[in-house]
Design a protein that fits this description.
The complex is a heterodimer of chains A (350) and B (320).
Chain A (H helix, E strand, L loop, with lengths): L1 E6 H11 L4 E8 L2 E6 L25 E8 L11 E2 L7 E6 L1 H14 E2 L2 E2 L1 H9 E6 L25 E5 L3 E6 L2 H10 L3 E3 L1 H18 L14 H5 L4 H5 L7 H5 L6 E8 L2 E8 L20 H20 L10 H5 L6 H10 L5
Parallel strand pairs in A: 2-6, 6-9, 9-10
Antiparallel strand pairs in A: 1-11, 1-12, 2-3, 4-5, 4-14, 7-8, 10-11, 13-14
Chain B lengths: L4 H14 L4 E7 L6 E6 L8 E2 L24 E5 L1 H12 L8 E5 L8 H5 L6 E7 L2 E6 L3 E5 L6 H4 L11 E2 L14 H7 L3 H11 L8 H5 L24 H14 L9 H5 L7 H15 L27
Chain lengths: 350, 320
């Protein structure tokens, strides 16, 4: 654990220097706002950008990902045999992400990399990726990360955490991956550990103070699943929902996917696409039956999964890092903070 | 603007108290600046929840469709701007609901604001939003901006010529003056003037960041199909991934499904998390409907939509 300072004058040169070793991702502005994307050769991350609409989850878990392929040419011996596509193991670095996005990767990891199952594509991408976060000095009105076991200067899941000090970045190197990245950029101006940590602590406290989140999760674990499931407020929560997939797609922790096969000429490809529990198709059985056929059931599922089932199953807090993207992007302003409080406060009258 | 809210609340409370309607669907304040949420009020004492302001940009006709109304349910009152009312008319004309199932509380509207235009005035996030007549005061951690509502109107509101509901049971305010426009479809004309390659590139760029969340479709009162073509799975019609062809197929087909039906309410653009102006697709069809058939959707309960009827005067040769 050491600190370095990065003069902002050296920032772009350092990034350029690292491009031989890394594919560089960062916030990029375009017509539709700011997104985390691979940076084209002559572009640099928008470090001052406000929250990106989408999280950084797509770096490891693309919305559409080719996973298997087969030839349909029956003259070939291996026709119709699905084979893994070449995994993308190119080292990559994600610059300027918010700390909660790195914490979210750790939650997603519980699904893709656990003792029972290791997803080869996600794990390869995870191993190849270095996360360089930027502490949030001015959290916005939707940010409730401190209430979700995270925070504006959380280090969980990051390889480097930087703080913006006007003309320079003060960077805390947290892992070996982080060290390698700093070396590849040629960033090596050591800073005093004690002083730097004290500065980080001040910045963290200042930022945390600005978060006005009044979200309680302390009672959720004690609640009975079925009491919450049968709670009377779901109709009310779901009334305004239009059942789009925005909340699930902008969420850094939503990990559900769908498998699709497509064939073109003599090639078959198996894709994995993000899926959304908001869609009726998500649970549509081949028989035609749909166990979550109504909007209310689907809305309840999303919140129950994030705030109850996940918590009970993994004992790692809620499946939410408090980024507030779903709050900001929901077309009808369904606010997970309010729903969480309703669940946390709910006392059955039975 | 005089947002008529006191009148809306009084009408709503009266309707509920008398038992004329079972619930009143309107807008309530949201939990963050510039947000409102659709809400159903069932008791006169909750009527204070209702608001009407320049951020009520969704279309409430979306909350009264065949799917959401059960036959058993009594009459439902809907707070309706010009466009919401036009979509209620469209629902009735398309046999989704019957006129006697709904009670239209008409609201004369002077337009909704474009939240992205407002956000673009700031480098940080907006923390406060106040509307006082035509003046909007917006604050962030770094500054306060005062703007005129007219300068930040949504594009569809700027070109709206039906601010007053064409059909209603009661009006919550005096009608506002309707706008007259020399060139109502300037945006469409600009795209039409591009050479084909440039036009293709324009539309490719338009949908480049689409995440297929279908918020545009789901915010649209016209999209009430029990199963949308993109959700058909046996057999499947469209690829589900981010392939450009599949993404544009969704947008093209959705737009065509709205031909002669779209009221340009702007709910699709309002709902899009990526800020894609999906109206670029539907506006062209609205222009065609107007120029070829003299048709604007949702104005008349007794007229059939142009794509619903045969007319000997049809401008297309193939049909004659």
């Amino acid at each position: 654990m050491n600190f370095i300072t990065i003069d902002k004058k050296d920032w772009t040169r350092g990034i350029d220097q690292s491009r031989n070793a890394y594919r560089v991702y960062g916030p990029v502005k375009d017509e539709n706002g700011c997104q985390i994307k691979p940076l084209a050769p002559d572009t640099y991350p928008e470090m001052d950008a406000v929250v990106t609409v989408m999280s950084a989850k797509s770096v490891l878990f693309p919305q559409t990902e080719k996973i298997l392929t087969a030839t349909l040419d029956e003259s070939k011996q291996d026709h119709h045999i699905m084979k893994p596509v070449k995994k993308d193991e190119m080292p990559r670095v994600v610059l300027g992400i918010r700390p909660y996005d790195a914490k979210a990767v750790q939650l997603v990891k519980l699904n893709f990399d656990n003792p029972d199952y290791q997803d080869p594509y996600w794990c390869a991408a995870y191993d190849a990726t270095t996360f360089v976060g930027l502490g949030v000095t001015h959290p916005g009105p939707c940010d409730f990360s401190t209430a979700a076991g995270c925070g504006p200067f959380s280090e969980d899941g990051l390889d480097v955490l930087m703080a913006d000090m006007d003309d320079k970045y003060l960077a805390k190197i947290l892992t070996e991956k982080g060290e390698k990245w700093a070396a590849a950029c040629g960033f090596d101006t050591a800073a005093d550990v004690k002083e730097s940590q004290a500065l980080f602590d001040i910045l963290r406290k200042e930022a945390e103070k600005q978060i006005q989140a009044d979200v309680a999760t302390d009672q959720l674990a004690k609640k009975e699943i079925l009491d919450l499931y049968d709670a009377p407020f779901w109709e009310d929560v779901a009334f305004s929902c239009i059942n789009c997939g925005t909340c699930t797609y902008v969420c850094p922790t939503c990990w559900c996917f769908d498998i699709q096969d497509e064939a073109r000429h003599n090639t078959a490809v198996r894709f994995r696409n993000w899926d959304s529990c908001m869609s009726p198709l998500f649970t549509h059985h081949a028989s035609g039956h749909n166990p979550r056929g109504t909007k209310v059931q689907r809305v309840r599922q999303r919140f129950m999964h994030k705030l109850k089932y996940f918590l009970d199953k993994y004992d790692q807090g809620i499946m939410c890092v408090g980024c507030g993207r779903c709050v900001a992007s929901c077309p009808v302003n369904i606010d997970i903070r309010e729903v969480c409080n309703r669940m946390n406060d709910y006392e059955t009258t039975k | 603007m005089d947002t008529c809210i006191e009148k809306i609340r009084a009408i709503g409370a009266d309707l509920l108290a008398k038992g004329t309607v079972e619930k009143v669907i309107g807008f309530a304040n949201g939990s963050i600046p510039m947000a409102t949420r659709p809400v159903a009020v069932t008791s006169p004492k909750d009527m204070d929840k209702l608001v009407f302001n320049c951020v009520c940009g969704l279309n409430l006709a979306n909350y009264v469709s065949k799917n959401s109304l059960s036959k058993k349910e009594g009459k439902i009152a809907v707070v309706a701007k010009g466009c919401d009312a036009r979509n209620l008319v469209t629902h009735i004309v398309e046999n989704q609901i019957s006129r006697d199932q709904i009670y239209i509380i008409g609201v004369p509207c002077t337009g909704m604001v474009d939240k992205r235009k407002i956000a673009a005035l700031f480098e940080d996030e907006i923390t406060g939003f106040e509307e006082d007549g035509d003046t909007l005061t917006i604050t962030s951690a770094s500054k306060t901006e005062t703007v005129k509502k007219a300068d930040v109107l949504r594009h569809n509101c700027g070109v709206c010529t039906h601010r007053n509901p064409p059909v209603y049971d009661v009006m919550a305010g005096d009608p506002v003056e309707e706008q007259t426009l020399d060139q109502p479809y300037e945006d469409v004309d600009q795209i039409a003037a591009m050479d084909p390659d440039a036009r293709w590139a324009y539309f490719e760029k338009l949908t480049q960041n689409c995440i297929r969340c279908y918020a545009c479709r789901n915010a649209c009162p016209l999209c009430y199909c029990p199963t949308c073509f993109v959700d058909e799975s046996g057999p499947q019609w469209v690829g589900k991934g981010q392939d450009e062809t599949d993404v544009t197929t969704f947008h093209f087909l959705r737009a065509f499904h709205c031909a002669g039906r779209c009221t340009d309410c702007g709910a699709c653009v309002e709902a899009c998390p990526m800020g894609i102006n999906v109206r670029d697709f539907t506006r062209k069809l609205n222009k065609d409907a107007l120029e070829l058939f003299g048709w604007e959707a949702g104005l008349d309960l007794d007229k059939r939509p142009p794509l619903d009827v045969y007319s000997p005067n049809d401008p297309n040769d193939f049909i004659k």
